[in-house]
């Protein structure tokens, strides 16, 4: 080292004392030959112990790291380097020390390598601060991940049905609106409803119902595959959205697959029961069809599928839509019709062919519509049920029937009995017995209420209020009849609990007795069962003399139907009764005194 160099180094050494950096120098063998005094102050190393030693023998961490290998390659090639960082522990206390160094190779006038000169810097505080920042960022990232997971969980909770795992109504409303915002694509909507879910809940309990819903959701998903997304929108109702239909018949095909899947038995409480499903289908063009309209059409199609016998797919067509619109228009007239007294009673006579006498009549409702004329119940009763107005119509019919009974008696043609239909809602109304007790003035005319076997037998017999009402009505002398018997699913237990006075054999069985040996055997079994239980029988829907002869041969001698008489207004009934023999009022049944030829009254 020349005098000039030594002077320069002293100047630099003095300068480095005012900074945190230090200077260092190595010889051609990479041995340290100089450190500025700042190095000892900062690092607490014994400079004397380091002079004469090579860098690679100074204990530093991770000297096998690829960065060290690259650094050694730079030294061997006499290349300059910048910002090489490494860490080591101070020898006097073992504390961590991070160092950043830079070096420039030195050559003499002949170009011979003579060593390195460079600077060092303590970056421990910087590294620790960076480490704390990284740890903080990692903690923040973890917290953000937790928050994102919590957000996703909340979204799933808000949009997912907890019972089945399907998307819920909220998600459906969002997705159907989004699907219909897309242009130039046809969107199909399937409304799926389980056919016998209420019966499962009532018979086996809500836990069994939940199990059925889970099974149904899995079967619907499997039936759809990737073609559509199912949603549980409430109770036993599911919606399916289909976008960009590959074929026009895809919705019907998928609806059939869902019905096929749900037709398979489900294990419930060690039993295997079949639930079934009905599907309504509607399609609309995105950008032109509103969500509410598409949902309304699918609902209407489902309604038609259920009315058509259930376990089927129905799609809204223009003709069907016109029928639906017409029915809705008619339904909107029902509340006003009740207020105006437009619902009127008609009566269908009942006869005992052994005596040839009229034994009573069934009260049937008709709507005298101001614009559409006289309407049969099939055109409006279901709408009245859906509107929650059927009980008001039933009550009006009961009042009207009792008034007609009095007027017939005053006219000299007293009916031995009258039967009226009572809705499910009224059957569990605690006020019903008192109302009937008040309205039933003509006690010489027996009063019967009719129960639908398909609705009441097993379910209603378990209802306490229904049982109390039935008991009180029987105490009043009201008789209990079952309507449409033979088509429902009443158990013997339910039949015995209700203990009806009469079974009215459904017309679908009566009209097949002449042609079907199977139906003939079924009717015979019903009659024999009724006789064994001391229950009266009456055949509904007889249309021909052949029907009467066939049913009579099976042991049932009481009938109503077109072969006897069509339903009649009060005026026509009075005229009719003036031409036929009427049984004497007898609470034990019609008086069997004498007989008449049926041809005289048919």
From TrEMBL:
Domain of life: Bacteria
Keyword annotations from UniProtKB, A to Z: Coiled coil
Residue intervals of the PAC domain: 82-135
PANTHER family for the chain: BIOFILM ARCHITECTURE MAINTENANCE PROTEIN MBAA (PTHR44757:SF2), DIGUANYLATE CYCLASE DGCP (PTHR44757)
Domain EAL: 327-581
Protein name: Bifunctional diguanylate cyclase/phosphodiesterase
Coiled coil: 123-160
Pfam families, alphabetized: EAL (PF00563), GGDEF (PF00990)
Gene3D superfamilies: 3.30.70.270, EAL domain, PAS domain
GGDEF domain mapped to chain residues: 185-318
């Amino acid at each position: 080292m020349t005098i000039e160099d030594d002077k320069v180094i002293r100047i630099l050494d003095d300068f480095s004392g005012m900074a945190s950096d230090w200077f260092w120098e190595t010889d051609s063998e990479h041995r340290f030959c100089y450190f500025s005094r700042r190095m000892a102050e900062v690092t607490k190393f014994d400079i004397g112990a380091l002079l004469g030693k090579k860098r690679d023998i100074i204990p530093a961490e991770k000297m096998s790291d690829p960065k060290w290998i690259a650094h050694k390659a730079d030294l061997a090639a006499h290349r300059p380097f910048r910002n090489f960082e490494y860490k080591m522990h101070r020898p006097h206390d073992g504390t961590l020390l991070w160092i950043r160094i830079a070096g420039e190779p030195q050559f003499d006038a002949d170009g011979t390598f003579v060593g390195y000169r460079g600077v060092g810097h303590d970056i421990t505080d910087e590294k620790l601060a960076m480490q704390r920042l990284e740890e903080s960022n990692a903690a923040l990232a973890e917290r953000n991940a937790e928050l994102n997971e919590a957000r996703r969980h909340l979204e799933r909770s808000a949009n997912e049905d907890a019972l089945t795992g399907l998307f819920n109504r909220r998600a459906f409303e969002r997705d159907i609106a989004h699907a219909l915002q897309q242009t130039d694509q046809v969107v199909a909507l399937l409304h799926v409803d389980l056919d016998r879910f209420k019966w499962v809940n009532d018979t086996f309990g809500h836990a069994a119902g939940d199990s059925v819903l889970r099974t149904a959701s899995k079967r619907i998903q499997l039936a759809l595959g990737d073609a559509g997304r199912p949603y549980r929108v409430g109770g036993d109702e599911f919606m399916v959205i289909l976008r960009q239909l590959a074929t026009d018949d895809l919705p019907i095909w998928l609806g059939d697959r869902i019905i096929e899947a749900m037709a398979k038995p489900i294990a419930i409480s060690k039993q295997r029961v079949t639930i079934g499903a009905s599907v309504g289908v509607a399609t609309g063009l995105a950008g032109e069809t509103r969500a509410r309209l598409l949902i309304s059409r699918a609902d209407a199609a489902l309604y038609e599928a259920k009315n058509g016998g259930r376990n089927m797919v129905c799609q809204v067509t223009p003709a069907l839509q016109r029928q639906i619109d017409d029915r809705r228009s008619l339904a909107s007239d029902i509340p006003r019709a009740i207020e105006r007294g437009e619902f009127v009673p008609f009566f269908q006579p009942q006869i005992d062919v052994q005596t040839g006498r009229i034994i009573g009549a069934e009260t049937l409702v008709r709507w005298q519509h101001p614009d559409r004329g006289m309407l049969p119940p099939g055109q409006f009763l279901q709408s009245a049920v859906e509107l929650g107005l059927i009980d008001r119509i039933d009550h009006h019919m009961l009042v009207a029937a009792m008034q007609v009974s009095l007027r017939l008696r005053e006219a000299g043609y007293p009916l031995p009995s009258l039967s009226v239909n009572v809705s499910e809602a009224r059957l569990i109304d605690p006020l019903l017995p008192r109302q009937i007790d008040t309205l039933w003035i003509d006690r010489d005319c027996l009063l019967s209420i009719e129960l639908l076997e398909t609705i009441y037998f097993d379910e209603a017999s378990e209802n306490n209020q229904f049982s109390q009402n039935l008991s009180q009505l029987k105490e009043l002398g009201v008789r209990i009849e079952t309507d449409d018997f033979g088509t429902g699913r009443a158990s013997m237990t339910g039949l015995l609990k209700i203990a009806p006075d009469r079974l009215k054999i459904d017309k679908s069985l009566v009209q097949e007795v002449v042609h079907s040996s199977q139906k003939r055997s079924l009717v015979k079994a019903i009659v024999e069962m009724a006789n064994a239980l001391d229950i009266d029988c009456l055949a509904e829907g007889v249309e021909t003399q052949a029907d009467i002869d066939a049913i009579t041969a099976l042991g049932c001698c009481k009938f109503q139907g077109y072969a006897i008489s069509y339903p009649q207004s009060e005026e026509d009934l009075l005229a009719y009764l003036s031409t036929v023999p009427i049984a004497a009022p007898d609470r034990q049944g019609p008086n069997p005194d004498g007989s008449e030829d049926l041809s005289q009254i048919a």
